[in-house]
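Reply to dn_fold:

You asked what the input looked like. This is it:
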Amino acid sequence: MSELINNRQKQQEVLKEIILELHAGKDVKEVKDKFKRLIKAVGPGEIAQLEDELIKQGIREEEIQKLCDVHLSIFEDALILPEEEPKDAHHPLEIFRGKNNATLTLVNSIKSLLVEENLTEETLAKWQDLHKELLSIDTYYQMKEHLLFPYLEKKGFYGPPAVMWSTHDEIRDKLKSIMQSLEVASVEDLNKTVREQTFEVLQQIDDMVNKEEKILFPLCLEHLSETDWQAIQSNMPEFGYTVIEPIKKQPPKRKNNISAEGRIDLGSGSMNVHELTAFLNSLPIDITFVDANREVRYFNESKERIFARPRTVIGRKVEKCHPPESVHIVDRIIEELKNGKRKSADFWVNLNNRLVYIRYFPVRSSEGEFLGVLEVTQDITSIQKLSGEKRLLDDK
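and this is what came back:
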């Protein structure tokens, strides 16, 4: 066992040395042989674990990102991939691969246009159309970031997701910048620089696909369970991907949604009562819930509530909480939200030099059963004054 640990420590030291050499400016080819000697002894999972351990030791993710070029230049010969069983066409991994194939087709189509020495108006129009299609890669990257990466992190792999996400952002920014140039440029304006920028990002996309096939997908196949894949598949419609056939029938939901540790299963996550109460009271809005029997069942207690809500209101009929002359309006709101005539009811009033926005929404179960009404109240005075953009954090 000690021999194995020492060997692992040696591997870490060599990998760390490579990263530092790259940081110092050494060319990828100069460190390729050293990396090749290391990678002969490990697979994608071990490399990912080594990267994680290096991050824990203080090596910045940007430095590890430089290893991507090293990975991609030697994987074909050095990396032994695990055997993979055939996947159903509706398996998330096959959908990801299908998206990659479509992306590579776009990449190659754009490359074939850019090799032309003299661009024409027709070529420019084709380039613009293809580039607009390529921008949809953002949705695919979001699926990786929000569906695959969380499960890898749960298994203890933090390095590869962080490094890939950083590369995603680079690709997204470059694609947007090129699109801006294409939208305003004439054929004469599309000089050598724009072409070089485009070839550069197309190569990054190509390299990312390769890294997915050589690192990300094998890592996921090795460590994600069938239940994990089911959860990933069930959330794919959030990103516009409709799954026709599920991998397997989903297991029945637990009737008791409170765990032995006191955590409440909320479907998209869980909290204990202490966390949930603090979370609701931290919302920058006032919320009140009236159940299907028209009784007030809950309101949050934010520090700056707009309308007073004493706890004595809990269990009280909602019509008793309003002046008699406005009860008919309350009745109408509830009935129209209940029967689907309205999706919401909105009001705004001036109160003590503040503009207050009051909204009512129906609350329904996943089966469509009417459970009650949600009231949301918000001071939008400062929001109404916003203009332009703010992308940087200030010192306040």
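The two ends are 53 Å apart (CA to CA).
Hope that clears it up.
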